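Annotators were shown the component list below and the corresponding predicted structure, then asked to write short factual statements about the assembly.
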Amino acid sequence: MTDSGAHLRLGVLASGRGSNFQSIIDAIRSKQIKAVVAVLITDNPSAFAIERAKKNDIEHLIISPKEFGSGDDFYAKIAEELKKRRVELVILAGFMRIVRKPLIDAFPNRIMNIHPALLPSFPGLHAQKQALDYGVRISGCTVHFVDEGMDTGPVIIQAAVPVRHDDTEVILSERILKMEHKIYPEAIRLFSEGRLEVRGRTVKIKGQPTPDAAIVNSPLMKP
Ligand code: GRF
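Structure shown to annotators:
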């Protein structure tokens, strides 16, 4: 992927298949977002996200937490590598760890995460199963800034996704994932345009009122 001064420099952290990473790559290619992925960092040497990075000429680093004495040192190393590459926004795309202070302090309000539920409902692992087990009729996904809690930072965009009576975890996850792939690039676009302003725990979207940027509803009748 080619670099350019005017483009927002992203650093992506992923642990697995990286379909959200791919949606961001695609949004950059189609010029929906003016950004460049400076580096992919993974904690998992067999993450499929690595293949996606290779295919798109994106540098990747494998950083294993086992090589570090403490979690803080692991995150300090990640922050160092991101800074070295002049990353401006850190994207957690299926990064299966809770980010710690050294990274958060290095990128205040500059780390985003996507979660497959309407936060603050169903934080943590297996959010889609949590939603099914609870019996909610509407779930969805959330892009938020990252703080030291688990899925607790200020919400940027949410998309509502219906839950059907015969859904399985796999089917619901797929339906939510389609919306994840829409709202994550959109949140990055808003950031790249300087339109996100964090005020306490809320995020204001500057510029013209964009009700459907703040909440995206998927059609209730379509899969
Ligand atoms: C997504 O469901 C995301 O919401 C969650 O982890 C999953 C990652 O999927 N944080 P992928 O690796 O982006 O395909």
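Statements collected:
1. Residues 14, 16-20, 93-94, 114-116, 177, 180 surround 5-O-phosphono-beta-D-ribofuranosylamine (CB under 6 Å).
2. The helical segments are 19-29, 48-55, 71-84, 101-106, 127-134, 169-192, 211-214.
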